[in-house]
Amino acid sequence: MSDAYPNSNLSNAAAQFVVVGAGPSGLTAASELVDRNHDVTVLEQLSLVGGISRTEKHKGYHFDMGGHRFYTKAAEVNAFWERMLGDQFITRSRLSRIFYNGWFFPYPLKAVETVRGLGLIECVLILFSVIRWKLFPYREENTFEEWVTNRFGRRLFNTFFKTYTEKVWGISCKELKAEWAAQRISGLSLKTAVLSMFFRPRNVVKTLIEQFEYPRLGPGMMWEAVAEHVCENGGSIAMEATTTSIRTNGKDQVLSITYRQNGEETELPGSHFLFSMPITAVIRGMNPPPPPEILEAAKQLKYRDFLTVCLIIDKPDLFPDNWIYIHDSSVKTGRIQNYGNWSPDMVPEAGRSGLGLEYFCNVGDDLWNTSEEDLVELAKRELEILGLANASDVIDGVVYRVPKAYPVYDADYKQHLTVLREYLRGFTNMQMIGRNGLHRYNNQDHAMLTGMYAVKNLLDGTDFDLWKVNGEQEYLEEIRRDEKGTPQPVVAKSNVPAEVPVAAERNN
Ligand SMILES: Cc1cc2nc3c(=O)[nH]c(=O)nc-3n(C[C@H](O)[C@H](O)[C@H](O)COP(=O)(O)OP(=O)(O)OC[C@H]3O[C@@H](n4cnc5c(N)ncnc54)[C@H](O)[C@@H]3O)c2cc1C
After folding, report:
1. Is the beta carbon of 445 within 6 A of some atom in ligand 1?
2. How far, in Å, from the CA of 437 to the mean position of ligand 1?
3. Which site among 55, 101, 397, 493 is 20 to 30 Å from 240 CA-CA?
4. 279 and 301 in contact (C-beta within 8 Å)?
5. For the whole model, what pTM was predicted?
């Protein structure tokens, strides 16, 4: 792999704008900058662009790390996607089921299958449980468990929420903050969920979206197109270039970053800096170091990681879903992707399938440290247990690891994040952007918006609060526009919308 993205004109002379990370937020920001004729250098630690939204390739098969639906309510983002990829998008119907207790439940839940899967008696018990918790709810809703139980009852919580959530997060639902679900999954009440079992909802709730757009060759195709656009318009992208330190004047200005590439460290000065790398790494890398309480706050922020075991299987049409949530505790995998059902072009050989078994873990734990060979064997065994394919039909397997896939919302994260945010606000020529830059549970569209609005803040002197761009707060509706439709600085709203969560959508 070359050091620079094709067409990059890389030099170590001072860059006007330095962007760390070639994921959706960093590349969107870089694209906006070159479109406004600014000089920009992007530094990316991996050999692929796209960040968590990249597409890995093996023997011509395409593997999407996590399964990325392209869906947004933001007109800017839609226009950007359309401009970059246009006719390379395909519209896909969503089919995803929940595997629990030996049964596949359609998601969104459908009345007949749900009753069949759970049994009539269990359904009646669930109903009683809902009534009991509506009448005598927890007084305070601090944890995920309390919040879900108040809305859906204890029995539904145990059936559709608990095991999966704990697989994804690796912590008890008693420790997970209610806020996480509130930010990420909203708009769906028990009433909506139940009604949608019988009728097609009039207002489509995010969790119930039945169709979505998808680049023909996976999300990486989008980010490769954006990277091309950046380089063709004068920007440069250094690949396998890890930002290791950030030199500041100790007061209010970032002066340069240092990156490591091919074992060598290079200092790159600049006038403006955008960081989509994890906020914890930014704080840790600052030179001179921030005060001890800031370093301590950064230490307290946590992440959840995952790995995907990608298998090539000598059988077509294994199951109709794009993905299946595995709530069942008989296996370790949390979700299974069937890439050919995302886009047939992801699977280059007729008569075969490409699957991805996702395992949620922490860097350094047993699962993370398991060898590729053993993980492939585990995935083969689990496919058989689930009855989805025979292990003997698996002809190849490869493992991709995704560190820091999820910023964790634990009991204290908000307090620590506030400390960091206040500290970083003092640096006037830098912006934190993206999912890990802001430690926000953002999807691609909201990560992109942070990139777009960061550029406006730096170039136009606006003061958009990028920390408020998130999953379900309709940020764009909050943005005031002047009479010409130009966005004006946002007025902050509460971080916790009064919405409710639903079972299976919380793993983006
Ligand atoms: C399982 C899963 C499923 C998802 N599904 C969806 C979905 O269906 N739809 C959707 O829209 N979104 C989805 N998302 C969210 C989406 O992946 C993210 O919102 C998006 O990738 C965030 O973009 P970003 O640029 O903020 O961060 P990232 O994608 O994390 O990109 C940051 C980049 O910075 C680089 N970097 C980090 N540190 C350094 C350093 N020190 N030096 C240089 N480079 C560095 C990283 O390598 C990375 O390339 C999903 C996420 C997960 C985990």
Report:
1. yes
2. 10
3. 397
4. yes
5. 0.88
